[in-house]
Specification:
Elements lengths: L1 H18 L4 H29 L22 H9 L2 E3 L2 E3 L2 H9 L10 E2 L2 H13 L6 H5 L7 H12 L2 H11 L6 E2 L1 H11 L5 H12 L5 H7 L7 E2 H23 L5 E3 H8 L8 H11 L5 E3 H11 L2 H12 L7 H12 L5 H11 L9 H13 L10 H23 L4
Parallel strand pairs: 1-3
Antiparallel strand pairs: 1-2, 4-5, 6-7
Helix pairs in contact: 1-2, 5-11, 8-9, 8-20, 9-20, 12-15, 13-18, 14-18, 16-17
Length: about 425
């Protein structure tokens, strides 16, 4: 403030000196120069003040804002949001059509904005789900008339990638009465166990769903619009088998270009569709050189191989028993391990395609490690679960959470464990 006082004093002295001028014409000539000197003097004082002080006296010192990092979303969450086409109460949802697209397509070319649903829209969807009939075309029949939450998306993906034995164990653990059926509350626990994620967001989503009424098509399909019905295990098992069959049929038609049979090179393309292995070029070269043209694979042969991919954990164990860990595998050993794991045989066309594709050094054997890596990518459709580096690790988590859910259920009934 002292600097501003000096500036004011100089300005007053300049004005007084200007009054001593006797001629008006002289005043007119000198006044602009005087005014310019005054402004220049003020500017000099102002500059000097800034040179001697880092901040103005009236500056407000605000604390440096800490950058808030957004929570990292998983690849599955990103994919869910990408394919979800509807929004209800500010939450994204998939339709049954969206789910089918998400497991078949790598990307979605969305030409329209997400649809904002009203309560009336959701009620109509729940009624449609309640009236829907079982079958391997359930999701295609519902189309865009249905809601699938993120937790259910994880749950449905697990149905597509795991054998039914794990679900039956989890179902029976939560079925405290042993009557082979569960109510809606018990099913929500089953859904949370199977689609288990350690992320806080997934836990909060599951807890929110438990607190609400029936709000998704899957729940309305199993328990009715009011949520009062019971779900029998045989009904749930049929739902799992129908969903697997529906996706298998759509993938078969996609890679067979709508034909009744799939060429062996199309089957190879399906196998490698989601893999990121460094040896991809070698696989493609093997296909071009070793697989004969004009030979096809039927839908039944394709389904048998899909059954095998859903039993990779049992197959890996069988391979260790048959040939030892991480050793090259011959066709006879491979065939035997598949039979042990699934109870079914693979056709000669499928076996020959697999071996010619993954035979890296021409010894009529395939690398167990490389083959399992490609198959895991195929089953998980490129979305590996990071916290668990193997199928075995994933199911260890499922079993642990199943026991926890069973203990909670038994705790409510007061039964001893």
């Amino acid at each position: 403030m002292a600097s501003w006082g000096k500036f004011a004093g100089v300005f007053r002295n300049v004005l007084r000196s200007s009054r001593t001028l006797r001629s008006f014409s002289v005043r007119r000539a000198v006044s602009p120069g005087i005014l310019g000197s005054a402004i220049g003097t003020g500017a000099i004082f102002y500059y000097q003040y800034h040179a001697n002080s880092k901040t103005l006296p009236f500056a407000v010192h605000a604390e440096e804002e800490k950058e808030v990092t957004a929570p990292v979303q998983s690849a599955r969450k990103i994919r869910f949001i990408q394919f979800a086409s509807v929004v209800y109460e500010q939450e994204p949802y998939m339709t049954p059509r969206d789910f089918l697209y998400s497991v078949m397509l790598e990307n979605v070319d969305r030409k329209l904005q997400k649809r904002i649903l009203t309560t009336e829209d959701v009620n109509d969807m729940l009624i449609a789900a309640q009236k829907a009939r079982p079958g391997s075309d359930l999701f295609r029949t519902l189309g865009d008339s249905g809601l699938i939450s993120y937790t259910e998306y994880l749950f449905l993906l697990t149905i597509l990638t795991k054998p039914g034995t794990g679900f039956h164990i989890a179902f029976k653990m939560l079925d405290v009465d042993g009557n082979e059926h569960v109510d809606r509350k018990e099913f929500l626990k089953l859904k949370k166990i199977i689609s288990k994620s350690k992320s806080k967001q997934a836990k909060e989503t599951a807890e929110m769903e438990e607190g609400k009424g029936v709000n998704t098509s899957l729940e309305a399909y199993f328990f009715g619009k009011k949520g009062d019905d019971k779900l029998q295990y045989k009904e749930f098992r049929r739902f799992m088998e129908d969903l697997q069959a529906e996706v298998q049929e759509m993938e078969f038609l996609q890679f067979s270009k709508g034909m009744d049979t799939m060429r062996r090179e199309d089957f190879a393309e399906w196998l490698l569709h989601y893999t990121n292995e460094e040896d991809n070029e070698v696989y493609w070269e093997n296909m071009r050189k070793k697989i004969p043209a004009g030979q096809s694979i039927t839908f039944e042969e394709f389904k048998s191989f899909c059954l095998f991919t859903n039993n990779l954990e049992d197959f890996a164990f069988s391979m260790k028993m048959v040939s030892g860990a991480n050793r090259p595998v011959g066709m006879a050993q491979f065939r035997r391990a598949v039979k042990i794991a699934t109870g079914h045989d693979l056709s000669e066309s499928v076996l020959d395609t697999v071996f010619k594709l993954f035979d890296m050094d021409g010894d009529n054997c395939l690398s167990h490690k490389e083959f399992m890596g490609v198959m895991t990518d195929r089953v998980l459709r490129g979305l590996k679960v990071q916290p668990h580096n193997s199928v075995l690790g994933y199911w260890k988590c499922v079993k642990r959470e199943t026991l926890k859910g069973a203990q909670e259920a038994l705790g409510h009934t007061g039964s001893p464990i």
